Amino acid sequence: MPQITGIRLLLPSCSPARPLSASANLFRFSFASSLGCRFSLATQRPRQSLSIFSSSSSFDWRGRRPGNFLPQRRRSSSDGDLARERRESKGSTEMELEGATFNRKRAEGRDRSAKPRNLQLKVRKLNPVSTICYAQILGTGMDTQDTSPSVLLFFDKQRFIFNAGEGLQRFCTEHKIKLSKIDHMFLTRVCSETAGGLPGLLLTLAGIGEEGMSVNIWGPSDFKYFVEAMRSFIPNAAMVHTHSFGGTTDDNRADSSNSGAVRSLTNPIVLIDDEVVKISAILLHPSFSGECADKMDVANIANSDNLDLQSKARSSLKPGDIAVIYACELSEIKGKFDPLKAQALGLKPGPKYRELQLGKSVKSDRLDIMIHPSDVLDPSIPGPIVLLVDCPSEAYLQELLSLQSLNPYYTNFMDQSNEESKSVNCVIHLGPASVTKTAQYRSWMKRFAGAQHIMAGHEIKNIQIPILRSSARITSRLNYLCPRLFPTQGFWSVQHPSSFLQDSNASTEDSSPIVCETISAENLLKFHLRPYSQLGLDRSVIPSSLTAEGIVDELISEIPEITDASRIVSQLWCGSGDSMHRSSANDNMIEEPWMTENAVMSDSCKMSQQRVISEGIHVDHDSDVPSCLEDITREDMEIVLLGTGSSQPSKYRNVSSVYVNLFSRGSLLLDCGEGTLGQLKRRFGMKDADDAVKALNFIWISHIHADHHTGLARILALRAELLKGVPHEPVLVIGPRLLKRFLDAYSRLEDLDMQFLDCRYTTAASFDAVAGSLGLGGNTPELGKNNNKLDGAGRVENTLFSKGSRMESCWKRPASPVDTATMVPLLAKLKRVLHRAGLDALFSVPVVHCPQAFGVVVKAAERTNRVGKTIPGWKMVYSGDTRPCQAIVDASRDATVLIHEATFEDGLEEEALARNHSTTMEAVNVGTSAGAYRIILTHFSQRYPKIPVFDEKHMKNTCIGFDMMSVNVADLSVLPRVLPYIRLLFKNEMALDESEEALVAAAN
Ligand SMILES: [Zn+2]
Ligand SMILES: [Zn+2]
Questions:
Q1: Cβ contacts of residue 453 below 8 Å, gap of 6+?
Q2: Which stretches make up the tRNase Z endonuclease domain (predicted)?
Q3: CA 35 – ligand 1 centroid, Å
Q4: In-domain check, residue 112
Q5: How remote is the CA of residue 706 from the centroid of ligand 1, in Å?
Q6: pLDDT tens profile 808-838
Q7: Number of domains the chain contains
């Protein structure tokens, strides 16, 4: 019998009668805190904020107050205002049901309700006859090839999605696919490539509406490991509807004598069977590696009756090895009842009509005959069938070719089991081209005569078309304005050497004559299933092509002054470049050319800029260039902002990740939100992004909120894959303790090839007290020292949070004494890794956000210049998520660059306080009071879709971060002066946005 296991994970704290154990309490807190950026429970809310949110109606949706810093453009369109008012007056529920695009209410912190959420599944009334139905390719990862594409099976009243790789949520936001309407999700495999987007998605759904939403998620047995891993940071309540099916790889191991269980794995497992559709799963296993593979011929095993041999072979399976073929069979539509025919056969109108319609034969009233349904009903229309086939590698081919459960779907199949032969209308192939272009696979495809084949696996030609058009558009515009800071256009061509992809079969087109209809998938391509008259392909919603040149042309016609701005910006670099240190005689020549509200350059500003151009005057007017930048080269360090948004990925900003390129000395990653790999590919191209992943010295994670670490597994799994067979060390992951739980659980599914080091052991105090005494000293102990000391038991004692506060108790809770036996080798390794990377020190700094939240200080080693002078190393500080705090001020003392979160605009201090974030001004103040040379702001609330609101008066040393912005250490002096021009780029922002929205509204 097929096994269906529902993993029901109900939160014990839901029943108030039951006392919570200490650990349950801790978990409940981490539950709340893990949703801190998402949705929150009342327990987490500081007392003083209660009044703020209960009186939120006195604010408008931006929390705007009269005379605040909103730029003119917000009011540029009266139509837009109307549209917004309409939106606001619709009430929260409807607004949020419009899709998981952006939960404004949550982002504003107005979603806190005291009562626990229910996270109900949707109940729908189904109608098989009049529904519209199609399968649609959601080309997530089609351009970057970092995730598997998803497929949407759409019905009026039900929606199913197959696979949820990283970025699915962002993709759906972009293309107005309403995730809130999805009922079931299915995984073709359980790995980061196909399921990496799931954690973020569950959290988003849980945050929708008053009660939150949930979705049924189905995966092969190994899905339980994935669920287990997610439990370390996702509340159980958000995952109640996860189901795994089929025997587990463990079962195979433990129970290899139970041959019946093994056989059952080859039967289709029916998952959904309602009036409209039946969805069943057929499991697919790889050929067995290692010694098994040498001894056994898999095809023969699968066909043989030697069940013992089968089970032995299966026992070598690893979790994550199982792939699933899904068969979606729409129910047939019964033919119409013809009363004239019934009359002619001597039947009176009455209950017998209904019997016939229900498929039963009845006796005629007037004649002595039996009347059968076929006598009075028009012929029924068979339900269309779609198959989704994920054959991830050639190792699965043999079993695919011999799977008996596929027999009914093949044309000309000799029916031996009395099962009806089924006619498949469409087969969507999710496997990579390297598999689907093999002769074996092609000939297997021919078994489905008459079916439309859609090849949706990765193909090199797809990389030219950006999937996230909105962000590609902004990237292109920024690139036009300032290619130094924005080196990528958001597009690349196949010819580009850095985007060369290893695709061994891409050039060898199938030489055998193609019998079946085969088409390459395109993003949003549909295959219609109902109504029957429309059966077939539909390309009408495939996005029109978009080119970087087109976007620039559009920009120039929209903002003509941008061409001058671009020229002026390029002139800013005259005074920088490889040699930073120069006189600043012309300082007074250029005022900061801040734009006015209307972003029109003042005449004096224009004049001075024209002088810059005509006279070629160096504009480097920094007299305060820190000595560490002396003679710095462009191959020293570059900060690449991969994600600059908070909470959840949005159209324009991905979630947190900072890639620090140390060039020949490797690289580091500070935070790794969902989609980090995709962003790396967008920044560096296919191949170079892989190299960037291979070059990682370490990954540092600030805290356990989903917007900071859910891209980690994908990066680690890819790195392990890329370095297979190459001598290397496991990568060091430095993060909060809870992250280890996630990584340990996840490693059962995929090889992550890493070593974990708790952030707490990398604080200055910890280094000082433990590593120092064990001969690992050499770090600069003054950093952050005043925050923590080790107590007698070897615990780091907190002096940062107020005594008795929840934060403090969580900080102290890990009472396990420092395990020096494990820690010292890891710290020694860190030391080695730092040295190799040309770094002198790394410290984690406890910050004020959630339990175990950290900032980080990275300091470069000193160097010697051409004339033998010793030059100090640069110092970079990243705040993670935090309130402005003394710990970061102390840590940022004389920093070369401080990357600080600035979730909210000025004026929203109370909100920032309530949610443990910072406002723009607060972030700038931290940097200024620490004497940081440059400040880069990031982690903007998604309420600021393109550019956050800021007050230019205070931005003298500061720049706003954008996704893909690449700040070379050699460009730091110029950095703040580019900001006004960037602002110019967004002067029409609101008008554009609203016209987009109008279009979308019309399309729906
Ligand atoms: Zn965050
Ligand atoms: Zn956070």
A1: 426, 427, 429, 445, 516, 517, 518, 519
A2: 141-197
A3: 10
A4: no
A5: 8
A6: 555 544 445 566 777 888 998 999 999 999 9
A7: 2
